[in-house]
Write a structure and sequence with these properties.
Helix content is 63%, strand content 4%. With 446 residues, the chain is mainly α. The relative contact order is 0.12.
């Protein structure tokens, strides 16, 4: 966590925007999406949370990693608690939380302590669910609504759980359901107006709601391929889902069944968007971990069914451990071996006097350079018809030594069209580490 090793493109993006949120950089948190190379399609709250902690400790990336890891641990604890609240026993709660911890740290380990708001949003959502799952009163409805809105202001695409709670409350008690709907809508409107009023350009809603992401049915295979990890859990949960979707109004298991159903639907839909990773199915992992905990609590008391079901539940981890585990361990060792290399790269970039563009933006962040180009989101905008003029203007703008220097990390093929544009200008190469090249723009096109 506390190294200058870049883990993911998102880490630097979140770090730069967190600096903007707390005023360390005099630039808008939500730039004008029509005339900018920087985009922000996330709600604002995570940038303030990371920004305040980052201001205190002096590093926004480290602050985001601390909050992400803390929220992940909090999610493990809440899954344990929710299983007990829904009628499970301690054995089932241990198994359900262990399934979640193993699956998430094994298959999605890059997200565990990454500067990304995903786990923070899940933590607040589950905290709200914990307030309402056992007992529904107006006060608890208010608490849950507030916590859900906080979660939504951190990450806006977590809709499965709020939708499940809405349907479940209306089925059980229309008055409470109506109170819930009014509170939720009012909180969303008030918080949105309040945050939007902070930004002079008023681009927040445009940036978030009209984000130019490519969504295509061609990615449906990838979406269903990601579900394969959850197939054993889905198979175990089949009977549970059939029984409890019909009886949603009677008990809390019905709410969890609705949550699981919606999580799969929205996970598949969100996976159709470019740049969406396994995090689209984190809600599914949470929901099916809860179901598994309840199943191991209340059924399969005989030894043989219990053991066979446990093997099925942990089958993906067991089946892939022979090659996945050595790969994970080897990856960690490689990171530590490369630590000095990345420190040297950052020192080199820091010494450059002219502007720098990094396609792994943590490098530029740690080197103290301004944020010049959001590779992923700008390329998405270009694919949706946005003009290339802002990029060309940035390249030819007069700078010291008449050049722009660009770090190129791992030659990510996702951004290759942008690199072709940049490299159409006179340039020269210099490799400064096994992973990083410098491309120096030496002049304008003839």
């Amino acid at each position: 966590m506390f190294t200058h090793i870049p883990f993911d493109y998102n880490e630097g993006w979140n770090a730069y925007l967190s600096e903007r949120a707390v005023g360390l950089v005099p630039a808008p948190l939500y730039p004008d999406p029509h005339n900018s190379l920087i985009f922000n399609n996330y709600p604002p709250l995570s940038f303030y949370l990371v920004g305040w902690l980052g201001y205190a400790i002096g590093d926004m990336v480290w602050a985001g990693r601390i909050l992400a890891l803390s929220a992940w641990f909090g999610t493990v604890i809440l899954i344990f608690r929710l299983i007990l609240q829904a009628g499970g026993n301690r054995l089932g709660a241990h198994i359900g939380s262990l399934i979640f911890a193993l699956y998430s740290s094994y298959f999605f380990h890059s997200y565990i302590a990454m500067n990304d708001p995903q786990w923070m949003a899940h933590f607040f959502m589950l905290l709200g669910l914990s307030a309402i799952i056992q007992k529904q009163t107006p006060l608890r409805i208010i608490i849950t609504a507030v916590l859900f809105v906080i979660g939504g202001l951190i990450k806006h695409n977590l809709v499965a759980l709020p939708l499940a709670v809405t349907g479940w409350l209306f089925i059980r008690d229309r008055k409470l359901g109506l109170l819930w709907a009014i509170l939720g809508l009012t909180s969303i409107v008030v918080s949105t107006i309040g945050f939007n009023a902070l930004y002079h350009s008023h681009s927040m809603l445009i940036d978030i709601l009209h984000h130019k992401r490519i969504i295509t049915l061609c990615r449906i295979k990838k979406a269903f391929g990601r579900i394969a990890i959850f197939l054993p859990l889905i198979i175990l949960a089949t009977t549970f889902l059939k029984e409890n979707l019909r009886l949603a109004q009677l008990k809390s298991e019905g709410l969890i069944a609705l949550f699981a159903f919606f999580s799969l639907f929205f996970g598949i839909f969100e996976s159709l968007g470019e740049g969406v990773s396994y995090n689209a199915f984190f809600e599914s992992l949470i929901a099916f971990s809860l179901i598994a905990g309840l199943l191991f609590s209340n059924r399969w008391t005989e030894k043989r069914p219990f053991l066979s079901s446990a093997v099925v539940a942990f089958l993906p981890v067991l089946a892939t451990s022979a090659f996945c585990l050595p790969n994970i361990i080897g990856h960690q060792h490689r990171l530590y071996r490369e630590k000095q290399q990345w420190d040297d790269v950052i020192s080199y970039v820091k010494a450059i006097k002219s502007p720098v563009i990094c396609d792994i933006s943590e490098i530029c962040y740690w080197a103290g350079k301004d944020y010049k180009l959001d590779f992923f989101n700008f390329y998405q905008a270009v694919k949706r018809g946005a003009s290339l003029d802002p990029l060309n203007k940035a390249i030819v703008t007069p700078v010291p030594n008449s050049m722009i220097r660009i770090t190129l990390a791992n030659k990510n093929p996702t951004y290759s069209p942008l690199w072709k544009i940049i490299m159409s200008y006179p340039h020269r190469y210099k490799r400064i580490s096994p992973h990083v090249e410098i491309i120096e723009i030496t002049g304008q096109k003839k």
